[in-house]
Design brief:
The chain is α/β, with parallel strands linked by helices and 237 residues long. 37% of the residues lie in helices and 19% in strands. The chain contains eight helices and eight strands, in the order βαβαββααβαβαβαβα. It has helices spanning 15-28, 51-56, 99-106, 109-113, 134-148, 167-184, 195-208, 229-235; strands at residues 3-9, 33-38, 59-62, 90-95, 117-124, 154-157, 188-193, 217-220. The protein has an eight-stranded parallel β-sheet with strand order 3-2-4-1-5-6-7-8, with helices on both faces. Helix 6 (167-184) packs across helix 7. It is globular, with a radius of gyration of 17 Å.
């Protein structure tokens, strides 16, 4: 059965980073994998930036024709339709980071309805300005669900400050996604982060006796979208 996951979230949520990690882990686990970069809004920090890395590791990538060319043309690649009928076992969608971007997803509503297994995950990073309050997150989620015409099935706590992330930062994210989950009834399915802060948060959660039902799976990620000098000289911006 084809497993399809749609990642949505505000700008700076880290959904593209998570999409890359899910794709790489999937293909390393032996699953034929395709990643659809459906972000037609944001020209930066997108999955398609790591095209060569993905393809070298066996991940098929579909992305807008004019992505990363400097030409602004919000078009959806026609070969997106193929992922609903081909033989790939794992399909991941990295969707535009605001309600306008979610519109691109809405045109595939009928195709998604025919899938047997679909996860729509809202990636939340409460350390970003547009996701800092409960009201902002609830409004964003409601607008995206309306425009993409898909119901969010899970919440991901991806609270981070890049390399400055600490266990306490992830704990702040825990507090936010707990409030969102209680308000919406949508479960928290994942807490993601780099190895050191994530491990520290797990220990902190035990000490504070945090409710594990608002943590979900703890998912260690690698930084593929980093902007340090070494990656710039080898991979570009």
């Amino acid at each position: 059965m084809k497993a399809t996951t749609v990642l949505i979230g505000n700008f700076g949520s880290g959904k593209s980073e998570l999409a890359l990690n899910l794709a790489m882990r999937s293909v390393r686990g032996g699953s034929s994998t395709v990643l659809v970069d459906l972000d037609i809004i944001n020209p930066y920090f997108r999955s398609a930036e790591r095209k060569h890395m993905l393809e070298q590791n066996g991940v098929k990538l579909i992305y807008p024709t004019y992505a990363m060319t400097g030409v602004e043309s919000p078009t959806v690649p026609p070969d997106v339709y193929s992922v609903f009928i081909d033989e790939h076992e794992t399909v991941l969608f990295d969707v535009g980071g605001d309600p306008s971007g979610a519109v691109a997803l809405g045109q595939f509503k009928r195709n998604f309805d025919e899938l047997g297994q679909l996860h729509v995950l809202c990636v939340v990073n409460c350390m970003r300005p547009f996701s800092a309050t409960l009201e902002q997150n609830l409004t964003m989620m409601a607008q995206i669900q309306t425009r993409c015409r898909l119901a969010i099935t899970g919440i991901v706590n991806n609270a981070n400050l890049s390399y400055e992330t600490t266990p306490q930062v992830i704990a702040e994210g825990y507090s936010m996604v707990e409030r969102i989950s209680r308000e919406t009834g949508i479960p928290v399915v994942m807490t993601s982060g780099m190895k050191a802060p994530l491990s520290g948060f797990v220990r902190l959660a035990r000490e504070l006796e945090l409710d594990p039902s608002y943590m979900g799976e703890t998912y260690e990620i690698e930084r593929y979208m980093r902007r340090d000098w070494e990656s710039f000289t080898t991979l570009g911006i």
